[in-house]
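Comment on the following before class.
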Amino acid sequence: MTTSRRNDLVKPGRRLAYQQIGISIFLVVACALVAYFCWGLSYAISALTGGAIGIIPNFIFAWKAFRFSGASVSKLVVESFYSGVKLKLVLTALLFALAFKFMVIMPIPFFGTFCLVMVMPLLAPVFLKI
Protein backbone atom coordinates (compact mmCIF):
# COMPACT_ATOMS: atom_id res chain seq x y z
CA MET A 1 0.00 0.00 0.00
CA THR A 2 1.38 3.40 -0.90
CA THR A 3 1.96 6.21 1.55
CA SER A 4 -0.76 8.39 -0.01
CA ARG A 5 -3.26 5.55 0.36
CA ARG A 6 -2.40 5.24 4.04
CA ASN A 7 -2.85 8.97 4.52
CA ASP A 8 -6.29 8.72 2.89
CA LEU A 9 -7.36 6.35 5.68
CA VAL A 10 -6.64 8.86 8.45
CA LYS A 11 -8.05 11.95 6.71
CA PRO A 12 -11.57 11.71 8.22
CA GLY A 13 -10.25 11.31 11.76
CA ARG A 14 -7.65 14.02 11.33
CA ARG A 15 -10.21 16.38 9.81
CA LEU A 16 -12.65 15.79 12.69
CA ALA A 17 -9.91 16.36 15.29
CA TYR A 18 -8.83 19.63 13.66
CA GLN A 19 -12.45 20.78 13.31
CA GLN A 20 -12.97 20.17 17.02
CA ILE A 21 -9.81 22.13 17.80
CA GLY A 22 -11.03 24.98 15.58
CA ILE A 23 -14.38 25.10 17.36
CA SER A 24 -12.57 25.01 20.70
CA ILE A 25 -10.43 27.98 19.67
CA PHE A 26 -13.55 29.90 18.64
CA LEU A 27 -15.30 29.14 21.95
CA VAL A 28 -12.23 30.07 24.02
CA VAL A 29 -11.88 33.41 22.23
CA ALA A 30 -15.62 34.04 22.68
CA CYS A 31 -15.36 33.25 26.41
CA ALA A 32 -12.33 35.52 26.74
CA LEU A 33 -14.17 38.38 25.01
CA VAL A 34 -17.18 37.95 27.30
CA ALA A 35 -14.88 37.84 30.34
CA TYR A 36 -13.06 40.95 29.15
CA PHE A 37 -16.17 43.03 28.57
CA CYS A 38 -17.91 41.84 31.74
CA TRP A 39 -15.08 41.59 34.29
CA GLY A 40 -11.85 42.95 32.81
CA LEU A 41 -8.50 42.00 31.37
CA SER A 42 -7.29 39.66 34.13
CA TYR A 43 -10.39 37.48 33.72
CA ALA A 44 -9.95 37.41 29.94
CA ILE A 45 -6.29 36.41 30.25
CA SER A 46 -7.27 33.66 32.69
CA ALA A 47 -9.91 32.40 30.23
CA LEU A 48 -7.41 32.40 27.35
CA THR A 49 -4.82 30.63 29.48
CA GLY A 50 -7.23 27.91 30.59
CA GLY A 51 -8.37 27.39 27.01
CA ALA A 52 -4.81 27.26 25.70
CA ILE A 53 -3.91 24.63 28.31
CA GLY A 54 -6.71 22.50 26.89
CA ILE A 55 -6.16 23.21 23.19
CA ILE A 56 -2.37 22.91 22.84
CA PRO A 57 -2.12 19.32 24.16
CA ASN A 58 -5.19 18.32 22.11
CA PHE A 59 -3.56 19.67 18.95
CA ILE A 60 -0.30 17.83 19.67
CA PHE A 61 -2.24 14.62 20.34
CA ALA A 62 -4.20 14.93 17.07
CA TRP A 63 -1.00 15.56 15.13
CA LYS A 64 0.76 12.59 16.73
CA ALA A 65 -2.17 10.16 16.77
CA PHE A 66 -3.12 10.49 13.10
CA ARG A 67 0.32 10.09 11.54
CA PHE A 68 -0.02 6.42 10.56
CA SER A 69 -2.77 4.21 9.18
CA GLY A 70 -3.23 0.81 7.63
CA ALA A 71 -2.96 -2.79 8.71
CA SER A 72 0.68 -3.07 7.68
CA VAL A 73 1.67 -0.44 10.26
CA SER A 74 -0.87 -1.32 12.95
CA LYS A 75 1.84 -1.45 15.61
CA LEU A 76 2.89 2.11 14.70
CA VAL A 77 -0.75 3.26 14.84
CA VAL A 78 -1.18 1.93 18.38
CA GLU A 79 2.20 3.28 19.50
CA SER A 80 1.44 6.72 18.08
CA PHE A 81 -1.89 6.85 19.95
CA TYR A 82 -0.28 5.75 23.23
CA SER A 83 2.63 8.14 22.89
CA GLY A 84 0.20 10.91 21.93
CA VAL A 85 -1.87 10.33 25.06
CA LYS A 86 1.24 10.28 27.25
CA LEU A 87 2.55 13.46 25.67
CA LYS A 88 -0.85 15.12 26.07
CA LEU A 89 -1.00 14.32 29.80
CA VAL A 90 2.57 15.44 30.47
CA LEU A 91 2.13 18.63 28.47
CA THR A 92 -1.15 19.43 30.23
CA ALA A 93 0.47 19.00 33.65
CA LEU A 94 3.46 21.09 32.60
CA LEU A 95 1.27 23.90 31.25
CA PHE A 96 -0.81 23.90 34.45
CA ALA A 97 2.37 24.11 36.54
CA LEU A 98 3.73 26.98 34.44
CA ALA A 99 0.43 28.87 34.60
CA PHE A 100 0.19 28.52 38.38
CA LYS A 101 3.83 29.47 38.89
CA PHE A 102 4.08 32.49 36.60
CA MET A 103 0.55 33.92 36.33
CA VAL A 104 -2.13 35.35 38.55
CA ILE A 105 -5.08 33.13 37.71
CA MET A 106 -8.76 33.94 38.19
CA PRO A 107 -10.15 30.44 38.91
CA ILE A 108 -13.66 30.66 37.40
CA PRO A 109 -12.73 31.73 33.85
CA PHE A 110 -9.52 29.66 33.91
CA PHE A 111 -11.12 26.35 34.85
CA GLY A 112 -14.36 27.19 33.04
CA THR A 113 -12.71 27.50 29.64
CA PHE A 114 -10.41 24.54 30.34
CA CYS A 115 -13.46 22.38 31.13
CA LEU A 116 -15.24 23.70 28.03
CA VAL A 117 -12.32 22.55 25.87
CA MET A 118 -12.30 19.15 27.59
CA VAL A 119 -16.05 18.71 26.99
CA MET A 120 -15.79 19.82 23.35
CA PRO A 121 -15.55 16.26 21.94
CA LEU A 122 -18.91 15.50 23.57
CA LEU A 123 -20.42 18.66 22.08
CA ALA A 124 -18.97 18.07 18.61
CA PRO A 125 -22.06 16.31 17.20
CA VAL A 126 -24.06 19.50 17.88
CA PHE A 127 -21.66 21.63 15.81
CA LEU A 128 -20.34 19.16 13.22
CA LYS A 129 -21.92 16.69 10.85
CA ILE A 130 -20.55 13.40 12.12
About this structure: Residues 1-5 have pLDDT under 50 and may be disordered. The first helix runs from residue 3 to 39. Residues 18 and 62 are 7 Å apart (CA to CA). The chain is about 85% helix and 0% strand.
